[in-house]
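Model it.
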Amino acid sequence: MAGGIRGPRTSGPRCTSTSARGVFMSFARVRVSLVVCAWLASIAGPARGQVSPGPPTGGAPAAPDAPIPPPAPTPPGSTAAPAPETPPAARSLAPGAGQPGAAGGLVEVTDPDAVRRCRDLGEEAIDTSRPGARGRLGLREALKEIGRARGASHIEYAGYVVLADSNAQRERGHFYDCTISMPAAAAPPLRSFATRTSYTGQIDVFPVGSLRAKLDTQALEGDTVTAYGVSGSFEYIVAPGVALGVNPGVVLGLKGPADTTSDTEYDVRARLRVGKLVGDGLGAHLYASGGISWLVMPGDAPTAVGAIVGFGAGVSHPVDSSTFVTLELGYQYGFQSASVGTVDIEAASRLFHIGLGIGSYL
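Modeled.
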């Protein structure tokens, strides 16, 4: 029995040998798969348009910081990429005119020379019942809207006035298109003050004055009551701030407080005015005058004739583009005298006046 019985067959060494062979075969299959995949990738690359890097042609490899060489010239027959377009140059404005403001904005100008070579788009005058600075600001915004609707790039304001009867305000705007420059020959002429004239009519009040009489060595002088008069002037504006003209006038009711009769004075004067004479807004000026005067006394008294000189100051304000109002304060010295036979009589006047007038530019 002992010799006939076989124990269990041992397979340990055999199993170990079989496992090692299996691992080796798996590793070999993986390596073969990797080689095959790499070979297939090298074949598929050129088929898809990819160029595999070739071997170096000699020399040391390029340094990482080496400059990139310029692109090779385009072969004949190939189509090059179009170059980017150069933006068009901005449209030039007229000389002396500024660039237009932000989107929809207008450039406000005060110098007529700045828009001399711009296309004239006309003007517009509008009113508002709102008083004060807010009302005037609203006027200008409304004029800008009109200018934008006309295609204007510049606007010039003129003729601002407060209407006394209704306390309303009026503003005038002149529109220009300066995006197209006009040739010099077609440009409108500059506003010339040397060719402008003005006419003024004025009502005068003489609240303070005196009459002086002197016969030989005896002199009498007395104050006058309030007198009234009218005057007018015709002036020639020789420069933007200087005007020369004639200024005739008449004074009625020259007498003392106790007098029952009055004298009448007729004056013819030449006058020089200096200051802001025209333009938008309030203007101020000084004046000096000189001429001849006739002091006509009542009854059979002779007429006294002599020189007069005066000086004063005033303000003016435009009502519209060609009309203005004035207010003046002034003082005048008279050196009139008369003769009765061989006797000379001095009869002179000293008058302070307040004048309110209205005038027009032509």
